[in-house]
Design goal:
The protein is an alpha/beta fold. Helices cover about 40% and strands about 15% of the residues. The chain has helices at about 10-20, 55-60, 80-90, 100-105, 110-125, 145-150, 170-180, 200-210, 220-230, 235-245, 255-260, 270-275, and strands spanning about 1-5, 25-30, 45, 65, 95, 130-135, 155, 185-190, 215-220. Strands 3-2-1-4-5-6-8 form a 7-stranded parallel sheet, with helices on both faces. A two-stranded parallel sheet has the order 7-9.
Length: about 280
């Protein structure tokens, strides 16, 4: 059995779908009570990574686990306690969703520090491990859904700075391969899209998917900061703005790892926009 934590999230949902389509026995785990977001036939259990004992019933008898990085609540996790519960349940293989920021922003407590502690614990676990380090997700564009639906407008800072955003479905499919197949133990995969894309270009791609033009409004850094502070911790906001405005060469590098694992190029942002156009309609 394969256990997927964060199963209703951007990566967890396509991962569960890919595993179920491959005929694997999957248990989807999320903090929410409802399992309505998981595919038919997949069992769901409520548990919280921040409360490792809640994971014990889910991990008992599991062969492999996908460990979500905790998102904005990552600093609340106790990696060693989570892994102790996994080992007690018989887990032999673990795939960790980490972050590119572990290596590109090592001094950032919100990206590098917290992510590194998770990675280090997984490396020491004694289990077969694979670490996934994606950069920004195409699904970040969902933040524009309301203004695009209401006013056909998308606002963001640094409108012409490009980053190789990755489709969460590609991340999920890479995770599915690493969970199901041998040959990935001890590997660290950096996951990006196939090309740099700017906020202005992403807004245009959504407009193309809709068949209507989207007006792009470039925010100042302070305007964006004030908006992001409404739903993100300050440390995360500052690091995110630094990446968006002054990315390092490593953060703009196109990685070959998606194609290396999946045998096909990563999906483009335009493909993501077409697949998710209903959210902006």
């Amino acid at each position: 059995m394969i256990v997927v934590t964060g199963a209703t999230g951007n990566v967890g949902r396509p991962l569960v779908t890919a595993l179920a389509a491959a005929g694997e026995r999957v248990l989807a785990v999320s903090r929410g009570v409802s399992g309505a977001a998981v595919p038919e036939g997949v069992r769901h259990r409520q548990a919280d990574l921040a409360a490792p004992e809640s994971l014990r019933p889910a991990l008992d008898g599991a062969d492999a686990v996908f460990l979500h990085d905790g998102g904005a609540g990552a600093h609340l996790l106790s990696p060693q306690d989570i892994l102790d519960v996994a080992k007690a349940g018989g887990v032999r293989r673990i795939v960790l969703l980490s972050s590119q920021g572990v290596v590109t922003r090592p001094r950032s407590s919100s990206h590098g520090g917290t992510g590194r502690s998770l990675e280090d614990a997984v490396r020491r676990s004694g289990m077969d491990w694979t670490i996934l380090r994606p950069g920004g997700f195409d699904s970040n564009a969902f933040a524009w859904a309301g203004t695009i639906r209401e006013r056909r407008t998308a606002a963001a800072p640094f409108g012409d700075t490009g980053l190789p955003f990755v489709d969460p479905a590609d991340v999920g499919e890479v995770a599915a391969v690493a969970l199901r197949e041998d040959g990935h133990a001890g590997q660290v995969y950096e996951l990006t899209g196939p090309a740099l894309s700017t906020p202005r270009q992403r807004a245009e791609a959504i407009g193309d998917a809709l068949g209507e033009p989207i007006r792009f409004a470039e925010q100042t850094r302070e305007e964006a900061r004030a908006q992001m502070l409404q739903f993100m911790p300050e440390a995360v906001v500052e690091t995110t703005l630094a990446i968006m405005g002054e990315p390092t060469p490593a953060e703009q590098r196109i990685s070959p790892d998606v194609e290396r694992v999946l045998g096909r190029p990563p999906r483009t942002f335009a493909e993501w926009a077409v697949r998710n156009v209903a959210a902006f309609s």
